[in-house]
Amino acid sequence: MFRTIVGRAVASAAGLQFCATAICLSDKELSKKPKWYQKDVLELETSLKTLGRRGFTDSPTVLSEAFDTLKKFSDFSNVEVQWRLARACVEKSVFSKCVKEKTNLLHEAVEYAKKAFALDLDNHCAGAHKCKGVFKHAIFMYAIALSMLQDIDKKADRTADIIKHFELASEIDSNDAYTCHLLGVVHYRKKNYEEALSLFEKAEKIKEKFSVRNLYYMGLTLQDTGKTKEAIRSYIAAYKLRPSSEYDIMARSQAKAKLLKLNVSKEEYEEGKY
């Protein structure tokens, strides 16, 4: 699959330059190529796979290696490469402790994502279903990068653009619980509590208990609308659920803090946790 995206690395007098052609190479065909050619294609294939998986890349080393490889192909006008570069920048920003570096990475992610969804998809993938999926990734990464920039720089209100693109991503894939959740978070922060709660509940219907963070935000929304008993149930559910990311770990800790503040007995949430 990935060898239809890139099949050739070319050396020039100015140094190593990478370019791509949409050609298919079988393992047998690849084995006949020069060693440097095989190395470049296999490295890119690995990077595309790494940044195409669901879920956060929890190894900074693996992420950096994939990013460094893809950067060599950053001038290649292919949506598969560009949206993964956007994702790599977003994920690298999470590991960064420097606000300036984090901000620069997120701005870079926005540009890669914009380039990705601006490409003529019909020329880069076969089949409308596949094109929609790839386009959704690009839109999704654009919205996430903007959302994270909003957290850093609150002076510029990017909310309308963020909502627009999360909604577009949700239209393309209505069964993506994470998109519903993130759209809900945006509405929660704008105090659109009814819309936020509806989205958190929709996310749970799509995939029950998929995220500690979704249950925690559901609790926040319920508490802010005066539904304390329901909020406590959501906080307990969030605390008892096994975290699957750094964001989930943080949300679980925040859920426990809420339960302590609401004077909920530890027996109600410590027993039977994951």
Automatic annotation (TrEMBL):
Pfam families: ANAPC3. Keywords: TPR repeat. The keyword Transcription regulation does not apply. One of its GO terms (biological process) is cell division. TPR repeats lie at residues 177-210, 212-245. InterPro entries: TPR-like_helical_dom_sf, TPR_rpt. The keyword Metal-binding does not apply. One of its GO terms (cellular component) is cytoplasm. SMART domains: TPR. Signal peptide: none annotated. Belongs to the APC3/CDC27 family. This is Cell division cycle protein 27 homolog.
